Amino acid sequence: MASSERSALLTYRLCGGSGEDERGRERGRAAAAATPRKLPTFLGVVVPTLLSMFSVVLFLRLGFVVGHAGLYQALAMFAVAYFIIGMTVLSVCAIATNGALDAGGAYYMISRALGPEFGGSIGIMFFLANVCGSALYLLGLVEAVVDSFGIPPGQEVGSGIHVLPRSYWYELLYGTILLALCLVVCLHLNSSEIENGSFTGFSLATLRENLGGGYGVDYTTGQMMSFSTVFAVMFNGCTGIMAGSNMSGDLKRPSYSIPRGTISAVLFTYLVYNLLAFLMCATCNRTLLQKDYGFLRDISIFPPLVTVGIYAATLSAAMSNLIGASRILYALARDDLFGRALTLAKKTSASGNPIMAVILSWLVVQLVLFSGKLNTIAGVVTTFFLLVYATVNLACLALEWASAPNFRPTFRYFSWHTCLLGIAGCCVMMFLISPVSASASLGFLLILLLALHYLSPSSTWGYISQALIFHQVRKYLLMLDVRKDHVKFWRPQMLLMVQNPRGSARLIDFVNDLKKSGLYVLGHVELQDLDTLPSDPLQPQQDSWLSLVDKLNVKAFISLTLAPSVRHGVRQLLFTSGLGGMRPNTLVLGFYDDAAPQDSLAQHPAFTSAREELPLGFPPLRAATTPKLLSPREYVGIVADALKMLRNVLLVRHLESLDKVWELRRAASPPPSIHVWPVNLLRPDSARYADTCSLFLLQMACVLNMARAWRRARLRLFLCVEAGAMPHAQEDKLRQLLKDLRIQAQIQLVPWDGVVRLHWQAPRGPPGGPAPAEEEETAVNFPPNTTQVSDEYVCAANKMVLEQGPAPAVRFLYLPRPPADTGLYPLYLRQLELLTRDLGPTVLVHGVSAVTSTQL
């Protein structure tokens, strides 16, 4: 391609683009209307790719490669390099044919495939790769200019055309002049004494000499060469495969042109490199190849043609990389991934050209050029490009493994095997070339990933991580077999019913500490009938609930339902919440009492410290005089339903008085405590500590104590004893049980003869009324032939619990099973209210699951 055609192509490339703000968008649309996409496959993909790959390596370093490595190893290098870029090209083609492409090339592909974290971090790496590549090609151009027009070594005054001085600062001046003229910078190369080599013409003896390796010292850097260092220089001739993709915004049909044009250019350059390597080995001795990188000019029939080729190829490749870097920088700025840091790069000219991105890229290239020599930065450039190619393969691999229905590329000549081979090849060669550069690049990439993950705004591109997580979660959920459950690996899986989050913030936070890495679902019942509504009223509420979960920093799912009553809604959620082996096994309810609800959400640290606005969508709390949405009978019915469905039940009261941050971090002595009462206080004749419910209560208290925020608290276990019941024997037995269960707790004996005496003296029902049936009494957890528990006894039990000081952070009490007679539900609830009155934060627990194990 003629240099004038190349200049026209590059000028067109510089004029494309669109603005980010409104004025920029208008200018971009005007520019797009004036210059629509029109580049065909050959001019838009094949030519830029060929010019980028046929650059400094072809003219100035191909002899260096075969001179040091020999023909066999050179061919092996080409095979390895083209294997890597071949796998990458297949991935590029697959992504490019899976949807419409915009400007940004590889950055656009990766960011839209892998999400903003990978897209932004790899975009920066690709920007640096293009910047360093531009500097590398310019260093090659400076070398060619100095070799052609520089004063010969050892002379102080030039003659003829050899008039350019060869000092460091003069070469920096040459680069600065070229930079000012064509927006590309050049730098210097100090001269060295060159030994004479010979051009033998086609010679079998010369070919035999050059078949094997003969690594020597690079005369430009003074360093000893090896396979990895030579490969690093050679690979820069293969890094132009993205030149066509970078022009995706200017192509007439990107999805059609990129696969065909890139593959054609790669195959052509592979054949040319191999053919030239063979010809050089057959015609030039090793000394000439190793000691004179510009020997092609001397052996050419028409030397000026080689000089023009060197200048045109290196300059066009450098400009192509500079333009690619500026486009990537502009795309990063336009996507706002780095906030104000790249605001300047958004500015465009009147025609929509991102001129500030070009200038910023130019400045970075100028800095890179201070490295001094082409071979010095070759390893860094290769590492950056290998990392970008590995990520392109990773993007395609992720899309393939995610099995998303919308991943349907028209290019089918790829598989996850080719992606994996491309990733492996890139990673292996990165560390073979320069372990230090590879490690530093990966570390920098990791820092960018973490920064973007936590600081970048949300995007609407879609996150491949979500698709991969879904794919893996589905697979492992199918493998989670409930028939293989074992008590050793039991964990609480909570369903917390929430009427209004404004009054339940501390309860939500407390249950989050109780879940012990188990399932946690926030359930809500909306009392409406879908038949009378035009649409589902729950969908608009989802975002508010999800935002609430994010702000409170709890690891919970959301499950909302419509039902004619709260009880029916809770049944629905108990039946349908969860999936596979991950279903709630414990129902958590706030306590039913007459206390006016308090807006604890407004006082939560998540909103008070950060001055965040409260989540929208939640109605104000009901007034104290407003009727409740469910009756006492319905509330107890929910508890009974859960127990019938073999779900454990927790009723939580007075949690609004728990200031967890102050309670658990105060410096006062003794440390905060958790009081555990694993005995049914409403049935003293069944005071056992080893039944299922008591052990479940003990387990839940232990789980809370294991949470990070509660580790400073101490468990206090209260053993209620009567006179003559050998209390020390009971204490020893309980202590052994705690030892077997690996639970550390302080045991405290509590005499309760006075309380028990009140129980046996309780009146046998209302005067003249019939005694309850034996079946009903048993269901209420009372012994046969007795009547209802008196209020006096319950108040005495409450006082006994309250007197055990100092006041704990939270108490765990035994929750009796509701009576079978629904008519006794209000009485049952009244007894629970009396039992927990003024106790502070209290959890009533009834367990139906065996949850403790003494086995390994």
TrEMBL record:
Domain SLC12A transporter C-terminal: 506-594
Amino acid permease/ SLC12A domain segment(s): 44-148, 168-495
Main localisation: membrane
GO CC annotation, single: membrane
Keywords of this entry: Membrane, Transmembrane, Transmembrane helix, Transport
Gene3D superfamilies on file: Amino acid/polyamine transporter I
Pfam families found in the cross-reference section: AA_permease (PF00324), SLC12 (PF03522)
Keyword Transmembrane: yes
Domain of life: Eukaryota
Annotated InterPro entries: AA-permease/SLC12A_dom, SLC12_C, SLC12A_fam
Family that this chain belongs to: Belongs to the SLC12A transporter family.
Name of the featured protein: Solute carrier family 12 member 9
Organism lineage string: Eukaryota, Metazoa, Chordata, Craniata, Vertebrata
Gene from which the chain derives: SLC12A9
